């Protein structure tokens, strides 16, 4: 049973995981959907009520029914490196590839539907509330009057993009910033605006969850309490491994169950009382920088999750053993 | 409890359903996401562990928690009619709207995730097989050799686009066509190709399913047995109401359960033996033309599905009644 990694060529984070998979002897095929109809190819046959499919990438052929897991890391857009790329070819190739993979019994990190849903910040906030995570008071609105009333109740606010900032899309990386006390909210009418009560934080928390395993890292912000966006912070304090409070762990498990995610990178703000306030959960969040600074074995944990035998496979082995004893 | 219809302005099919909803006195709000930050607005507040959201459209305000159902008909792309449209505004508005709606307890026809998945033809074919529907032998491939071998086993083939032909995208409406006996499959390497055994059909079947209700229509093709794509057929034979064979009904129910769809328009080809061969299930398939020709009450059935009380609402009423008796 093979592990399929969907990612682009220059992905050193994927390389870190592949090293561990190779060391454990688990077959790995790496495929960039951008290579489709070039160095990547596919074929699937639906005959007599059954399906047999194959993918080929980098000269290796793998059966879709023989996939153990699929890791959707940083896949390129389908067929963009084809000889004659077009929107039509991208659509056809994407539908063919993901349509076949969706029929497989492989375990996904993360399933495309769960991944897509998980990108909706308003949905994240509601799921975090329901899971029992503390969520800073938040307003998403196009009504200037609603924004003004919210700012009266919560005078110390930050403003963020609703859609989050995706690492693959630099133009969208709008930093979180504080709202000036005399802000005029008239412009809210021209675009949905996310206002959130600012947490006076003493640390940023990055909690990386792989399956059931939680790896938390803490970065003190004591030197600069006004820093609001960790992604743009200076690197004075290093990330250090941290313990996850049991109540947070329970809530995070509930969140990931609800979100149907196998991997999630949570950002929390830790306040002076030690409360972890939920900011967001990025289903494709980077982990390389945390692993490097904390020494936490995130890549190895991902490799172990991907390498797990599929339920049917394990049961067969156990069954055979039982029959022999 | 209100019915929310997400659709564009000129949608006469939606009008047909609204007539029935109005007649039954169920509140309806119609919203085109394209109108966001113009004549449509939204606001949602996450405070103290709970969510309160509102939408405004055409001068009407509706609570998101007060939605009974959401009908995703033909929604425009978010914020494209805003004063200053941009990709960024579209993304922010789409995330805000659908992110909030996804948190609601409303019933969806159809849920965006289920709708998106349901558009994958390879996934449709596999689900149809698993549900027990007869599926014509099909190959989706970028390997010319696989195409040649398939054509040897099944000499009478049609070729179709993998991604289907979406009614909103005229450029994609590539008709299904027969494969010439001397076809050269070399070009298969340049784009995924869907080849399917041609069913010698005596009729086209359109089966419209709304919740548990099945409305089948039959259109004889006896005059032109070579016609392969009903969408491009001449209108000599009218659609007529038809019975659904019990085995097909069971399989269709299994399909829709697996697909998590509340609405689906199935296309079958009926062969000389009366077998219904699964061609596709369009989760947003048009039904106006079938209703007009057959007189089947599809719009009314959709209105009834949308108007159903939410489970909690019904339970409360029943509970109150029980307590009083």
From TrEMBL, chains A, B:
Database matches in InterPro entries: GRASP_SAV_5884, MvdD-like_ATPgrasp
Lineage, top ranks: Bacteria, Bacillati, Actinomycetota, Actinomycetes, Kitasatosporales
GO CC term (a single one): cytoplasm
Protein's name according to its UniProt entry: ATP-grasp ribosomal peptide maturase
Source organism of the structure: Streptomyces aquilus
Every MvdD-like pre-ATP grasp domain range: 2-113
GO molecular function: ribosomal S6-glutamic acid ligase activity
Organism superkingdom: Bacteria
Entry's Gene Ontology BP terms: SOS response
């Amino acid at each position: 049973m093979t592990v399929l990694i969907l990612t682009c060529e220059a992905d050193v984070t994927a390389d870190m995981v592949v090293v561990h998979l190779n060391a454990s002897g688990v077959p790995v095929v790496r495929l960039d959907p951008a290579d489709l109809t070039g160095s990547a190819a596919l074929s699937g046959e639906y005959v007599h009520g059954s399906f047999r499919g194959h993918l080929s990438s980098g000269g290796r052929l793998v059966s879709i029914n023989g996939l153990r897991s699929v890791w959707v890391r940083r896949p390129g857009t389908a067929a963009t490196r084809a000889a004659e790329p077009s929107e039509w070819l991208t659509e056809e190739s994407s539908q063919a590839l993901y349509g076949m993979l969706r029929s497989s019994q492989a375990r996904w990190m993360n399933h495309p539907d769960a991944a897509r849903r998980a990108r909706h910040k308003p949905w994240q906030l509601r799921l975090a509330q329901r899971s029992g995570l503390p969520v800073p008071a938040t307003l998403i609105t196009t009504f200037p009057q609603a924004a003004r009333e919210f700012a009266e109740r919560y005078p110390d606010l930050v403003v963020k993009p609703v859609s989050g900032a995706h690492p693959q899309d630099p133009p969208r990386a709008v930093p979180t910033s504080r709202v000036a006390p005399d802000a005029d909210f008239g412009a809210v009418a021209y675009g949905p605006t996310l206002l959130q009560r600012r947490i006076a934080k003493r640390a940023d928390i990055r909690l990386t969850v792989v399956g059931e395993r939680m790896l938390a890292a803490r970065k003190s912000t004591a030197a600069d309490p006004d820093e609001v966006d960790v992604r743009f912070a200076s690197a004075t304090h290093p990330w250090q491994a941290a313990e996850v409070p049991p109540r947070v762990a329970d809530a995070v498990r509930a969140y990931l169950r609800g979100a149907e995610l196998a991997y999630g990178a949570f950002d929390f703000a830790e306040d002076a009382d030690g409360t972890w306030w939920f900011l967001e959960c990025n289903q494709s969040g980077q982990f390389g920088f945390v692993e490097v600074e904390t020494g936490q074995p995130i890549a190895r944990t991902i490799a172990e999750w991907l390498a797990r035998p599929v339920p049917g496979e394990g049961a067969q082995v156990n069954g055979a053993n039982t029959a022999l004893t």
